[in-house]
Amino acid sequence: MIIVMKPQAPRKDISEVVSLIESKGLTAHLSEGREVTIIGVVGDKNKLCNVNIQLMSSVDKIVPVTESYKLASKKFHPEPTSVIVGNTVIGPGTLTIMAGPCAVESEEQLLTIAREVKKAGAQFVRGGAYKPRTSPYSFQGLEEEGLKYMAAAKQETGLNTICEVVSREAIEAAVKYVDMIQIGARNMQNFQLLKEAGHSGKPVLLKRGLAATIDEWLNAAEYIISEGNPNVVLCERGIRTFETATRNTLDLSAVPVIKAKSHLPIIVDPSHATGVWDYVAPLAKAGVACGADGLMIEVHNDPEHALSDGPQSLTFKHFDELMQDMKAYIKLAGRTLQ
Amino acid sequence: MIIVMKPQAPRKDISEVVSLIESKGLTAHLSEGREVTIIGVVGDKNKLCNVNIQLMSSVDKIVPVTESYKLASKKFHPEPTSVIVGNTVIGPGTLTIMAGPCAVESEEQLLTIAREVKKAGAQFVRGGAYKPRTSPYSFQGLEEEGLKYMAAAKQETGLNTICEVVSREAIEAAVKYVDMIQIGARNMQNFQLLKEAGHSGKPVLLKRGLAATIDEWLNAAEYIISEGNPNVVLCERGIRTFETATRNTLDLSAVPVIKAKSHLPIIVDPSHATGVWDYVAPLAKAGVACGADGLMIEVHNDPEHALSDGPQSLTFKHFDELMQDMKAYIKLAGRTLQ
Amino acid sequence: MIIVMKPQAPRKDISEVVSLIESKGLTAHLSEGREVTIIGVVGDKNKLCNVNIQLMSSVDKIVPVTESYKLASKKFHPEPTSVIVGNTVIGPGTLTIMAGPCAVESEEQLLTIAREVKKAGAQFVRGGAYKPRTSPYSFQGLEEEGLKYMAAAKQETGLNTICEVVSREAIEAAVKYVDMIQIGARNMQNFQLLKEAGHSGKPVLLKRGLAATIDEWLNAAEYIISEGNPNVVLCERGIRTFETATRNTLDLSAVPVIKAKSHLPIIVDPSHATGVWDYVAPLAKAGVACGADGLMIEVHNDPEHALSDGPQSLTFKHFDELMQDMKAYIKLAGRTLQ
Amino acid sequence: MIIVMKPQAPRKDISEVVSLIESKGLTAHLSEGREVTIIGVVGDKNKLCNVNIQLMSSVDKIVPVTESYKLASKKFHPEPTSVIVGNTVIGPGTLTIMAGPCAVESEEQLLTIAREVKKAGAQFVRGGAYKPRTSPYSFQGLEEEGLKYMAAAKQETGLNTICEVVSREAIEAAVKYVDMIQIGARNMQNFQLLKEAGHSGKPVLLKRGLAATIDEWLNAAEYIISEGNPNVVLCERGIRTFETATRNTLDLSAVPVIKAKSHLPIIVDPSHATGVWDYVAPLAKAGVACGADGLMIEVHNDPEHALSDGPQSLTFKHFDELMQDMKAYIKLAGRTLQ
User: Fold this and answer.
1) ipTM
2) Smallest Cβ distance to D186: which of C139, C170, C190?
3) Cβ–Cβ of C279/B251 closer than 8 Å?
4) pLDDT in the model for residue C106
5) Position with higher pLDDT, D28 vs B80
6) Å from D23 to nearest chain B CA?
7) Distance CA D289, CA C243 (A)
8) Strands across the sheet containing A2-5
9) Dihedral sign from CA coordinates of C205, C206, C210, C215
10) Secondary structure class of A271 (helix, strand, coil)
11) Which residue, D90, D96, D116, D108, is CA-closest to D314?
């Protein structure tokens, strides 16, 4: 931690800051510049957690030097992590495809879609049983009934299953039926839910919040890991910006940034990011090309009649074509579809 | 709802859209322009909820004409609503001050602060017992113990009390001790929590999410109201933008916008928005000047040692001065402190 | 300037950075922490301008300690500046109103508006003769003809005049006819134009760019001042965010932030910020309440037929009412209308 | 254009709007819904340019149906455009690489870099002779001297040359020495400069503004084309968002969006977007994978001593490796390096 003093800070104020630091068992290093004095603080900064140095006289600002997350950081865990779900390894060397409808609508619908995405090469079938919707009057999901269909889809196809959870009840139900749970963008800083996901015993897919910095996202992962669950996969799904041509702005730079800062796997969801099915294929390829460990793609048997997010869903034909096209990109990226 | 067809859409595609609309019992009005044809849809658009017209051939885009919220809308409830909490009326004609520490730290701390903010003219003491914190290693709140101190503060001072809730358990505890519950910015689209707040029987302060549009915010209010709880007060507390000189960007335009779109009261929180105590007073006055129904302000007995958000907290002296200064602004705005 | 080294940076890399700094005649102060070493650099950092320390081995990041602007900074000029235009003083103690149409449309229109805004209490008539428009097919302004009408309006009413400039030719013409020139939001980082404004001999109103941080804005002011023109007034006019209920998001926090960082006067333009006339009055009052030195407000004789930005313009009646309402706010803020 | 009336608009107000539309020679189509009436306007909307319908009684909002740009739109020019510069074709089927230093620093530097990027496979050498810099105290470029070095680099290597222009003088000088001129992000809405680029006789690379929507960007292109210069290539270089891990947020979705809306070629600049050399390679590959027609990449002989933007520049070795890696991606995308 670095403390920057205001220009011409009186010696007395500088001494007070130094005394405080030393009184907590830390060491202060002074650099006296022509204009300003800066004080480097060496030691465990948690010892300062109940003091607001920023409010002391003549203090201009505090500059943190180290990130607040540790378990999610590459600094203390340089090797990339693989998260294993059933017979699928999500991490370096592999490329994992999660595909399916935004919302589970019926058993038949889900089974039809699961069969098709399996045939096309997916490892996971996704499907929402609990839907966070902007308006209370929109379809909210089939809840536990939907989870049962997920279990049926797994039984028939052998695909892994993933479903978003929005509450403790949803987690308690989901762990009985699916292989991996998902925390959605709107709940990325629902810290209560993060802690509960940390106790769920299931691998967690953590979507980035619409307004979350990468730093906050890794802190959200830290909540899950620090509760004892190291099996966290990140998912970039677009951030909120001023641009309205796409639903959100897919931040593909997040892929190399996460690879530089964290050991956790990261996948990309171009369907929710763009909201337009026509843009999904080019951005899916781009996601593989920039180093993502997987993709989440919405596929629907009948997008024109989907209960949720039809405009961004691929038909079976389009999904199959995309999977064919992507094979060469996956190979180029040094990865294998499992 | 308006459907805009692509330029040169074949007659066949236009007919298909019209047939679909009419098959659902709605009426289609065609406007054939030189370049494009548009189709006005008249009737209950919920009848179209399981069709994605946007995916039909030659459809360019769908333009919604009416908002998805009804109960929160001024269109169907033109008179402004007053929310009554104990002996305080939040709404037109009054100005409500909620003041107190970011986090409840001890009974003594809370009582000291409650006495002082009461003396300075506040109607509510605020204080966090459940703290949503970016890092799992930051102080997370005293939980039920903190709520008990809130009840004690009420008992001694007669002030109304308000506390943020972050889970169903927190709501169940809070309703026993405090007068009003708060949904924080990070949970504004935690729809499960919104529904539970709708059943809590307590008035709800709904903070705007960091990346929430005003439309989404009113839809979040709709979740609470549609569960049977009409006592919702909105709170503008800054949105996330590219500017870093303040923690968030306080969007004071939201005050007149909300007044134009909704009948719900709205208050302003300049402390969380700016993150800097020095900017709180000018923006508090600005909030009153542009029509807010109240203010939420962080006050701390010892900001230099606050466990949370010290840099943005006012001292007793600064808060008292601000309250003195604001009296004339409150009067000018045609409002009274109760 | 502070250099943060990566965790476990080898001693050799640290020495290389230190040697480099010292070879340039600067001093390096080392703080060796448990996890990371930081190096404080003392001396004139311009000596390092042709070295990218960030690329040296084991360097994690560079943290600037001082701002890059000097002449616009309060640190080196603590007293607030007043900018004098004719008989109007823009700065502490006064409140300056600039009012008029977005675009000058005819001599008669401008004279009519000038008379009315003068009567209502404005000190400046504003009017665009050069209009930066998103589409090349929108009305682009009357150019020099419009400037002549500005001069006529001044002659008749005695009001000061201000007009946006968009090119060197526009500056050359404007200095012959108007009292103050304006650099618009879209040109805030048109550095060529800033330099030319610095040589114009006229006071400059510098609007904030739609995506400009306050730091960049003050650097833009620095361009003008460093060319020898200290008469710069800043104008907050809304930044671009995700919110669409208003055209831009008026950042009123910028007012106290500028007061904390700079000695330059700052005014607020609620008309362009919101794009909706109905929101102008509450935000104008808020601007005064939070410490602005003035306001720029669009007023039109016939908003329904305005060639540019009619929806955000006040009628004479609304402007007169606003000026009446604001008197008490101006007085409360300790300012006088001149 | 669609006019949406307020709920319960009186018949008289609706009639007035209809009369106005018809008085201008346009046709009005009414759709009377249960809640609101909408009016479709058919005909040339330019006839309404001096009326602000939005301000008429009971009008709620105006919804534009067609974009304001025509010449840049795919609707009226469905085939993709190729822009030819010397012996290079920028457009479908090809992949164009522009590489070089942020700033031209000396003849020797530029020649060295030009030779290396040619060898690695680039078609253009880029280099800034006029640098728009946030601070007036940063290096501003060698101006015409730098352009001469560009001409020398072309002469020796046969590469095409491109240089940013920031003023009419810069354009007048640049057309004498380089093959293509660039309008930078900060000048994307410097409409005067766009018009002058339209008269320059040179192909133009138009970078997206930091806060520009895709619609505004295409309108900026319209300025150039409508002055008679159809040779416009777009360049996505990152937009400004709240994320600070990268300098800007590269919006790769803009590539498929532009392909859907316009016939103009689009290239991607991952160097300026990210500001970090380490992220350039993955995002360059992603740009090719999502359909870009080319890439602009910063390469420097000695990034540690670059006068501008060293941290984002590739060394010769890294650039050469990237070009080797990209060959397979370029082939996969169905394109050829020329």
Assistant:
1) 0.91
2) C190
3) no
4) 94
5) B80
6) 17
7) 32
8) A27-32, A37-42, A2-5, A59-63
9) negative
10) helix
11) D116
What are the tens digits of pLDDT across the range D226-269?
999 999 999 999 999 999 999 999 999 999 999 999 999 999 99
Q: Residue for token digits 């923690």?
A: B247
Q: Is the CB of B274 inside 8 Å of chain C's CB atoms?
A: yes
| Share of residues in chain C with pLDDT > 90 (%) | 73
Alpha helices in chain D (DSSP H): 11-23, 107-120, 144-157, 168-177, 191-198, 214-226, 254-261, 270-274, 280-289, 316-332
**What is the chain C residue with the closest CA to A26?**
C33
Query: Cα–Cα distance between C55 and D51 in angstroms, integer?
Result: 57
SS3 A162: strand
Asked whether the beta carbons of B52 and B62 are under 8 A apart, the reply is no
Q: pLDDT digits over C133-176, tens only?
A: 888 888 788 999 999 999 999 999 999 999 999 999 999 999 99
Q: Which residues of D60-78 are buried (b: 16+ CB within 10 A; e: fewer)?
A: bebbebbbbbebbbbbeee
Question: How far is it, in rounded angstroms, from Cα B222 to Cα B70?
Answer: 7
Q: Which residue(s) pair with D266 in the sheet? A: D234
Nearest to A246 by CA among C20, B319, C207, D239: D239
Nearest CA in chain C to D277: C55
Distance of alpha carbon D30 from alpha carbon D38, whole angstroms: 6
User: Which of D211, D253, D286 has the CB atom closest to A246's CB atom?
Assistant: D253
Phi, psi of A34 (to 5 degrees): -60, -40
Q: Give residue A285's identity as a one-letter amino acid code.
A: K
When pLDDT is averaged across residues D299-325 and rounded to a whole number, the result is 88
Q: Which residues of B touch D40 (CB under 8 A)?
A: 2, 29, 31, 33, 38, 40
Contact D240, D277 (CB under 8 A): no
pTM score of the predicted model: 0.92
Q: Give the tens place of pLDDT for each residue, B104-155.
A: 999 999 999 999 999 999 999 999 999 888 888 877 889 999 999 999 999 9
Name the residue among B124, B87, B91, B123 with its Cα closest to residue B291: B91
pLDDT tens by residue, D136-175: 888 788 999 999 999 999 999 999 999 999 999 999 999 9
The string of pLDDT tens digits covering residues C210-219 is: 999 999 999 9
| Alpha-carbon torsion, ordered D203, D207, D209, D215, to 10 deg | 70
The pLDDT of residue A135: 85
Task: Assign D30 to helix, strand or coil.
Answer: strand
| Average pLDDT value for residue range A177-203 | 96
B4: tokens are 């805009």
Span between the terminal Cα atoms of chain D, in Å: 45
Asked if the model's pLDDT at residue C7 lies above 80, the reply is no
C-chain CB neighbours of D211 within 8 Å are 209-211, 240
pLDDT at position A49 is: 63
The pLDDT of residue D53: 81
Give the number of residues written for chain D.
Answer: 338
Burial (0-12, 13-18, 19+ Cβ within 10 Å), D113:
buried
Write the residue in B243, B249, B279 that is nearest to C256 by C-beta.
B279
Mean pLDDT, residues A68-75 taken together: 90
β-pair type (B2-5, A266-268): unpaired
CA distance D95 to chain A (A): 16
φ, ψ of residue D94 to 5 degrees: the values are -115, 165
